[in-house]
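Holo prediction — glycinamide ribonucleotide.
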Amino acid sequence: MLGSGSGSNCQSIFNAIDEGRLPAEVVIVLSDHADAYILERARQRGVRTELMDCGGYRNKFPLEVQERVAQLLRELRVDFVCLAGFMRLVKEPLLAAFPKRILNIHPALLPAFPGVEAWRQALEAGATQTGCTVHYVDAGMDSGEILMQAFVPVLPDDTPETLHARIQVQEHILYPAAILSALSRL
Ligand code: GAR
């Protein structure tokens, strides 16, 4: 798993594994932020963690870092790479190492509202419904083949925070189910 933030989606995958809903093992959690809570969740579970030093760049995911990560994940013989709130674009070194084996969760009904703070984009666009999407990752921004989606209505009194919170409830159901579906397609 790769994540930059709180790791609630990572936690939902841990929970699905523990509850027997997902026959999988998380072997490593990597983050680009030393203080990301996703790393703490992994440590509490005894899962290996790794910090990816992106050299102070805010958004760039340097190719040499991606090459090192690809090498490490190959050594660990991982089957799938799951992005969970990871805010940098994955490129060729990782994509080539794991073709059709990298998944991402995005907080909107793609292809609508790719990019950052998709819930805020939906609200500002006056959408009456939004949701979340799990998709295979390609070289574009949130553009890969869609695997599964869940709908979330936008309520008249929604704020960005209330809307994102309701989307996250659906994300935590959707992501483990989508990983299961991706595994069954192998
Ligand atoms: C989630 O809502 C996820 O969909 C979003 O970041 C949040 C991470 O939350 N990802 C993106 O916006 C990627 N474009 P989490 O750290 O609690 O799982």
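READOUT: The longest strand covers residues 129-136.
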